[in-house]
Predict the 3D structure of the following.
Amino acid sequence: MPSSPFLFLGTIIGVFLTIIMGTSSTSNAPALAPSKNHITYTTTTGYFLQDDPATNASTFDFITTDFGLINRTYDTDGPDSQHKTQWQRFGHYVSTLNRQSGRHVQYKVLYMGRHGEGVHNVAEAYYGTPAWDCYWSEKEGNGTVVWADAHLTTTGEAQAQAVNSFWASEITNQKIPTPQTYYTSPLTRCLATANISFSGLDLPSRHPFVPEVKELFREGISGHTCDRRSTKTYIHENFPSYKIEPGFSEDDLLWEALHGETPTDQDIRSKTVLDEVFSTDDSTYISITSHSGEIASILRGW
């Protein structure tokens, strides 16, 4: 599936994912030694426009295309399908696949959303990428605005509100399956985007919007101060309804000035956090609010 073309501000990517869970052990391991679980991820194509090579990335709009869900038939369509929405028929298809799959195979639908426009995005556009990367990104701000752990701009807030309105419409008119579990990056721009995007929606009482903050869903770690998260106390005080994963440190222990992780390291980190999620969460529909670089890293693993 294409990774970077669809990572615009405020964009949500629908991904239909096949997960194969298994165990591995070495032939010379002791007979009673525990096996090590491993998980393989595969994007199941042919269901969303985002993985169609004919889709024009520069003009694609998930809001006007029903999240990109392709208008097609499914093997599970029945006599009453003509009275169902595309999302209802897709949901039935996914449920059937999970019922019929082996116990080590799972089908998931991920709604992966990038945060809205942040102060750091505006600063980079203002100064230009070379000056931003070489100088300004290492500063806390410019004396007028602060972009360390960048907050949303008013435009970014409006983008997230547009996503909220779209979800409301999809829930009412298309009967879209809403996320059963929510996850978010610990950076403020994602915490705020998730809050605006999902608050106030008509969600099932058994699956309310109570996101879990996960350290490793953060943006690629660099020397840019915009990618240094705030403290655990700050997150709890400003987003008190959010769950914070166990072991989450008070201070950001991963960020270091003038140092950054390689793409390979980020991909390993992304695989680690996905394995954590899918080893413990049996939800079929999952929301992840993150960053362009991190979503691209997640997609590279499939």
Remarks:
- Residues 1-11, 23-35 have pLDDT under 50 and may be disordered.
- The longest helix spans residues 154-174.
